[in-house]
Amino acid sequence: MSFQKHLLEALGPRRIIAVLGGLYVVLAVGRGFVRFTRDVPPGNILVVTLLIAFPGFGLIYGSYWLSHTDIGSKFYSDIARWCLIGFGAMAIILLLYHLQPEGGISTPATSPPILTALSTVAGFGVGIHDAQAKTRTDQLEQRNRELEETQVELEETVDELEDANERLERYREYTDHVLDAIDDIFYVLDDAGSLRRWNESLCEVTGYSEAEISSMTAVDFFDDDEHPLIAETIADGFETGSIQLEAELLTKEGEPIPYEFVASTVENPDNESVLAGIGRDITERKEWERELENRVKQQEVVAEIGQLALERDDLDEVMAEAAQQVAAALHNEYCMVLDFDSSREELQLRQGVGWDDEGTVDVSISTDETDSQAAYTLANDHPVVVENFETETRFSGSELLTSHDIRSGISTLIGTTDDPWGLIAAYDTNPQTFTEEDVTFVQSVATILADAIERNQYQNDLEQLVADLEESNERLEQFAYAASHDLQEPLRMVSSYLQLIERRYGDELDEDGEEFLEFAVDGADRMRSMIDGLLQYSRVETQGSEFEPVDLENVLDDVREDLRMKIEESDAKITAESLPRVTGDEEQLRQVFQNLLSNAIKYSGEGPPKVHISAGRNGTDWTVSVSDNGIGIDPKDQDRIFEVFEGLHAADDYTGTGIGLAVCERIIERHGGEIWVESEPGEGSTFSVTLPAVTDRFEEYAVE
Which enzyme type, at the first EC level (predicted)? Predict the structure, then answer.
């Protein structure tokens, strides 16, 4: 057995079977060839050859055929072993038979090959049968093992499923506990709006029991008017995959609670689409939003009243609007603005909202009643808040408040405790809690009213001052005009008599007399010039023309023509840059340029005068400068030269009335500009003026 085993392992079962078959085929062919050479009849050769070769071919084919059967390969060795057993058994039998005393094989070259070949094939057949039986047995055992393994696996699976079910049940219980622990409402809805699942919060919030909720739909938790919206939202949720809705949830007692609902579609274990989501109480958020809206509204009111106070001069209009806006912003029924009369020690209703018509006429509150809210507010520099007059202990309500069943209110001072103007107060017939923002809001409105009152008083005082100044200026202008006009007549008389004396008695006067007469005539002429200048100065405002576009190039040409004799006599050189068009009185501007050029020529010193006119744009104004090379002006005297009759030089040195620059200054001021000088003694002077540029609108108006 050991030899067979080693042989089988060395060569392989199928190879051994094929080798045995091949040996018999070779043996048959070789024997036939030998027999054929010995002249054995071919028929005998063929029969024997086939008897030996045919089993050999059968073994060769059988070795190939085994791989195409369902016989297990591990049983191939059993088949090969049976082939060897068949061969060995026949060989032993033949050997024993041949060794018998009476026996013996007559044809040892023929019988043994045939018999061993047939026995080997027989062994192959037995081996096939044995291998098939073992294969069936092995397959059956394999199936049994697989069934046993399957059963074990099935039992394990059953155990795992039981464990999974237990875990799932525990997880479900855990999930239920978690859902019940949250304050928000958890819900699951089907497409009909029926509740499939919910947590305890739904019962706690609504007051319904589990049994009641199980028979309700989603729309049953809302007001009848909301049912179409709720049903439409649920349908949209199944269509779009999600919902978000704010609505008031009704409790069992009918109390509305603002809630926000969100949900998304999911599939339940039955592969049905459901809406799963939560509902959150947004009462605090709604209150915060309302508070924020109130704050925004209050800020808008403060801005509107502030803007109105700036745009309107009518205090009663501003106060009436303030009372109306404050009442609306605080959601109060009443509001009033009280004017404090310190002489009568009472508060007078100036403007109010919500009061009866008869209640708003001649309504006054005496401040002697120190236990009233009005008197208490007037004595304090902070707002006074009353949430409920029935529980208020600091003071009592005035007759005006009690007659209107006022329960709550807020009041604050307009002005200061040292100089109060009055009060603003808002009231309601219901108890109310006022926030710090409400208090700040009323204070802000009171501050705006105080500023408006102060600004109105300032405006009134300013208007009165302007009126007084205008009246004073008008009287001064009338006086100056009358004085200069009335002085003309006696001055003409003095001049006439001086001329008469000169004509009649000129020959009789000595040198001193002629000098005295000359001084008198010169004084009279200077007096006339001064009166003319004063008259001209007084008429700058009253006798001026309306402003219009003025071309300064033309103005300069006219001035040059007027001063042509003086320019030629002094050999003056006047140059100018391109000059702009400005808005003003052309005649008065001509007078300004004539005075400036005339002074530049007059105060040129010893050399020929050199004058240059330039201009530069500065925003909406033009700055025009007149520069000369004259004697200059000491900085300490530069402001004084624009005053009336303030000449810096003796009359013998330079002639003039000392009023020309004063007239220039008044003309420039009438044009809304300024005039100034920059100079140093001996370095010349530069006089500059600012004049308004011509605007596009003015140009269009002028063209039309």
Answer: transferase
Alpha-carbon distances, residue 265 vs 190, 222, 587, 588 (angstroms):
10, 22, 89, 88
Question: Among the residues of 544-631, which ranges form H helices?
Answer: 552-562, 564-570, 586-602
The residue type at 542? T
Considering only CA atoms, which of 270, 264, 255 is closest in space to residue 236? 264
- The residue written with tokens 């507010």 in the block is 377
Comparing CA positions, the residue from 632, 635, 658 lying closest to residue 646 is 658
Residues near 504 by Cβ (< 8 Å), separated by ≥ 6? Answer: none
Q: Look at residue 654 and tell me whether its pLDDT is greater than 50.
A: no
In the structure encoding, which two tokens stand for residue 628, read together?
A: 């000369």
508 alpha-carbon distance from chain centroid: 102
Rounded to whole angstroms, how far apart are CA atoms 251 and 283?
14
Backbone phi and psi for residue 188, each to the nearest 5 degrees, phi listed first: -130, 125
Cβ-proximal residues to 348 (8 Å cutoff; 6+ apart), any chain: 338, 339, 340, 341, 362, 363, 364
Q: Could you tell me which residues are beta bridge partners of residue 349?
A: 338
Question: How many C-beta atoms lie closer than 10 Å to residue 190's C-beta?
Answer: 17
CATH number of the structural domain 543-703 = 3.30.565.10
Q: Tokens at residue 108, please?
A: 């040892």
Residue ranges per structural domain of the chain: 2-148, 182-281, 289-462, 543-703
% of the chain at pLDDT higher than 70: 80
Label residues 320-338 b or e (16+ Cβ within 10 Å = b).
bbbbbbbbebbebbbbbbb
Q: Considering the chain, what is the average pLDDT of its residues?
A: 80
> Are 685 and 628 contacting, i.e. CB atoms less than 8 angstroms apart?
yes
Phi, psi of 266 (to 5 degrees): -140, 170
Spatial CA neighbour of 666 closest among 576, 562, 555, 533: 533
CA 403, 407, 412: angle at the middle one, nearest 5?
A: 95
Residue 371 confidence (pLDDT):
66
182-281 topology per CATH: Beta-Lactamase (3.30.450)
Instruction: Decide: 501 and 517 in contact? Cβ < 8 Å.
Output: yes
